[in-house]
């Protein structure tokens, strides 16, 4: 069971509020046995991560402001690496370098991954570091999605500290264009068949009643 995520995030103030609200006993059981050892990713998390085509990444500025960015790409662009690590290629963008600068000052980060159709979400904590293309071109090449038309400028490597599966409550199902195509394609094929059958029947009637 993953315990280090909640153990890392629950401050004494949060525990006190949980006690006031009557939820502390349940959360204490979730923390039981946590000693700071990172939660180890399993096949379940790896499969979920490999299916995602986007996630949200949170870091903190040197002045303490939270900063959240969206990262996207082909499904599986966020890769599970040996050693309880994650990695992804960072593509050329608006060149603000806010996240890169934040991680240089404080490596702590948080990832939020959502499966909208199935109403599942996975939250992760970790320590991130940025590797420039000229520092390790082989690493960046390995993290670049095959055939994806984007320019990779750097790699981000994340040592996972903890993770937590969140409840599906209040997640509105949403579907990608590809997911909708999988549903619509059989219907489109059926409509095409019905139209062909209707045209054939119409032609048959025209042959039987040529003067009408």
TrEMBL record:
Highest taxon listed in the record's lineage: Bacteria
Organism: Novosphingobium ginsenosidimutans
InterPro entries in the cross-refs: Pyridox_Oxase_N, Split_barrel_FMN-bd
Lineage: Bacteria, Pseudomonadati, Pseudomonadota, Alphaproteobacteria, Sphingomonadales
Record's protein name: Pyridoxamine 5'-phosphate oxidase family protein
Pfam families listed in its UniProt record: PNPOx_N (PF01243)
Domain Pyridoxamine 5'-phosphate oxidase N-terminal: 42-140
């Amino acid at each position: 069971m993953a315990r280090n995520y909640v153990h890392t995030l629950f401050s004494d103030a949060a525990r006190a509020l949980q006690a006031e609200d009557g939820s502390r006993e349940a959360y204490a059981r979730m923390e039981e046995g946590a000693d700071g050892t990172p939660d180890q990713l399993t096949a379940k998390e790896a499969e979920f991560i490999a299916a995602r085509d986007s996630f949200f990444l949170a870091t903190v500025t040197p002045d303490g402001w939270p900063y959240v960015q969206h990262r996207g790409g082909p499904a599986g662009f966020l890769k599970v690496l040996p050693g309880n690590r994650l990695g992804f290629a960072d593509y050329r963008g608006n060149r603000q370098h806010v996240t890169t600068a934040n991680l240089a000052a404080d490596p702590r980060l948080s990832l939020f991954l959502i499966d909208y159709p199935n109403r599942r979400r996975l939250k992760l904590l970790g320590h991130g570091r940025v590797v420039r293309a000229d520092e390790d071109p082989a690493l960046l090449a390995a993290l670049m999605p095959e055939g994806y038309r984007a320019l990779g400028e750097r790699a981000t490597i994340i040592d996972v500290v903890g993770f937590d599966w969140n409840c599906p409550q209040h997640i509105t199902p949403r579907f990608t264009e590809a997911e909708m195509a999988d549903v619509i394609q059989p219907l489109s094929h059926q409509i095409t068949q019905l139209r062909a059958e209707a045209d054939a029947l119409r032609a048959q009637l025209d042959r039987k009643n040529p003067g009408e």
